[in-house]
Amino acid sequence: MKLHETSAFRMAFRFAGLFSLIVLFALIYVYVTTLQEFKEQIDRELKQEIGILNNHYNKHGLDSLIQHTKNRQQYGRHLHHYYAVSDLTFKHLSGNDFLTGLIQTNQISPAQITFIDAHDVEHGDEDDNRLRIATQLIANNYWITTGQSNNSIEELEEHTFSAVIIAILVSIFSTMTIGIFMSRQVSAKTENINQGLEKAISSNFKQHLPIPKNEDEYHELTIKLNLMLSRIENLITGMRQVTDNIAHDLRSPLTRMRNRLEVTLLQSRNEDEYRDAMESAINDCSELLKTFNALLSITQAEAGVKRDDWNEIDLSELATEMAELYELVAEEQDLHFQWQKPESIKIEGNRQLLAQAISNLLENAIKFTPPTGTISLKLYIDKNHSYIGVCDTGPGISDHDKDKVIERFHRLDNARATPGNGLGLSLVNAVAKLHNGQLQLSDNNPGLCAYLKLKKTQ
Amino acid sequence: MHILVIEDDIEAASYVIKGLTESGHLVHHAADGKDGLGQALTGDYDIMIIDRMLPERDGLSIVSALRAANINTPVLILSALGEVDDRVEGLKAGGDDYLTKPYAFSELLARIEALSRRHTPEQASNKLKLADLEMDLMKHKVKRGGEIINLQPREFRLLEYLLRHTGQVVSRTMLLEQVWDYNFDPQTNVIDVHISRLRTKIDRGRDIPLLHTIRGAGYSLRETA
């Protein structure tokens, strides 16, 4: 991805714009107030000057005033000050005559000090062609006028303006530079993640992201993404396994059914034979339906059934019911069935799913335990968990196979000859997980113990 | 019986209709929810079979609307594979029974016959009777030919259910649901074992067996084979 397309860059860009705007407003404010203050300063000086001259006239008279203005103009400090004295009819008496000309052409009030801005004044000094002038009528006889160069304001204006431009340029430049630098840094990190994800996707989620060294938010993000990738990988593997297994385990009964029907059609038969063939086809279908339903139950248990189906369940009652249901089946297979009802153990759960899980464990035990063996349904609690399970004296499951039997459709070699679809323990496992528990398989020496370990309800 | 089938899958519906018609029922079909509700409100049916997912109007809302209109015809709700199997929700909406696709036709048939029976008001009698088999619900006693038969509590409930559905075929899953209150498919012959224990108690040594196995469908309690 190009740098200018990254969100970090766009953010830096917006930030630079905003920052420059703020700088611009701040500088305009400084500029306006400084100029204002400067003008007021000049007006104060002019007013003060008029006051001094007025006093001088009152004390020493006109001739002395004229002399005084000349003196003041010659002092260095007053180099850019101009003075003029004229009578009531604006007849120039002394000082800079262009001032008298200016007050003559402007409207002035005899009652108070009048300030005038004069531009392009021609008096031989190019630098001082802009003047601020103050004039006042003193003793109702003479206009005394004083002026001061305004060019410094112009200079100030020019300087401040260029300062503002430079400041804005600098701020745009610096924020952009910092922005680009920062967005480079950020987009390098996101780019790493992006490339990693691309690799993960193209490798079917087998490859994971390299974890960055710095423990920042990207570190955290990467770890979470990796967790997600492993989850996806597991799901994909699981799904592939299921699909493979469905293909294998459902194809054979379907093929068998098809063959049976085809063979039946090969020659004409009597009604009973047709009926037999159709009935066995229906039986095959029923088995297939059972497999589908079992798969559906697992999917539902794994997806997490709506909790409004959950109730408080007394495991002791439930187990007693299951014992009653299966005791006869066990006895018919010449197996000893053991069950001792403990005191009530209550948990929150889905009664149907828990019953089905226990039934699957009991059916497995009955199926795999040879005659005269013993099957015991057990229920007990420890500090944090309830355990409900079934122990048998059958062939057991080797440690190597214990993980495998939980997988969908997985059937151990010695189970291939027995009826079943290899989904029983998968469902038990899914139900256990749904109830925040797990399926534990252990050796009964001889035989197998399969327990649902369920967290106690608080 | 007069049956209304509301099902949008025409092929599935045609099999159901054919099967039900051949089993001696009069069947009407509606292919979407709106039409279905219209027919259900105006027609006089004994049973309705309503698919949960329908175009125009979903099955559960049809059932609720019927119940709101005070029409109490028994309803069997069908729900498809892959949908959340929310039996509780279906029954709460006013359905009387719930069947998840894919299902066996024999199962559907058995269930609607059971539903129709449930719908006919039962006699206020405390006794159920078939031939010389008698069940006294008050005293919790069962006699055959005057001879007392001792039954376990669950066997009693099993026989009670069979007696209440005398002459009908009841499937294994129906028995597991109604007598034990579980709705899963057991992989073993657990129901058969209980039935055979009950059969030993009521039929052994009798001239006329009452408890019959119906191949591919379930069981039936009746006098004639």
Description:
The complex is a heterodimer of chains A (458) and B (225). Chain A is α+β, with helices and mostly antiparallel strands and 458 residues long. Chain A has ten helices and twelve strands. Chain A has helices spanning 7-60, 62-74, 97-105, 151-202, 217-266, 271-303, 315-332, 351-368, 399-402, 424-434, and strands spanning 81-87, 92-95, 114-118, 131-138, 142-149, 311-314, 336-339, 346-349, 374-381, 385-392, 438-443, 448-455. Chain B has 225 residues and is of the alpha/beta class. Chain B has helices at 10-22, 33-42, 59-68, 87-92, 105-119, 153-164, 172-179, 190-203, and strands spanning 2-6, 26-30, 47-51, 75-79, 97-100, 127-130, 133-136, 141-144, 147-149, 169-170, 211-214, 218-221. In chain B, a hairpin with a 2-residue loop joins strand 8 (141-144) and strand 9. The mean pLDDT of chain B is 85. The chains are: A alpha+beta (458), B alpha/beta (225).
Helix and strand layout, with pairings?
The complex is a heterodimer of chains A (about 450) and B (about 220).
Chain A: H1 7-60, H2 62-74, E1 81-87, E2 92-95, H3 97-105, E3 114-118, E4 131-138, E5 142-149, H4 151-202, H5 217-266, H6 271-303, E6 311-314, H7 315-332, E7 336-339, E8 346-349, H8 351-368, E9 374-381, E10 385-392, H9 399-402, H10 424-434, E11 438-443, E12 448-455
Parallel strand pairs in A: 7-9
Antiparallel strand pairs in A: 1-2, 1-5, 3-4, 4-5, 6-8, 9-10, 10-12, 11-12
Chain B: E1 2-6, H1 10-22, E2 26-30, H2 33-42, E3 47-51, H3 59-68, E4 75-79, H4 87-92, E5 97-100, H5 105-119, E6 127-130, E7 133-136, E8 141-144, E9 147-149, H6 153-164, E10 169-170, H7 172-179, H8 190-203, E11 211-214, E12 218-221
Parallel strand pairs in B: 1-2, 1-3, 3-4, 4-5
Antiparallel strand pairs in B: 6-7, 7-8, 8-9, 10-12, 11-12
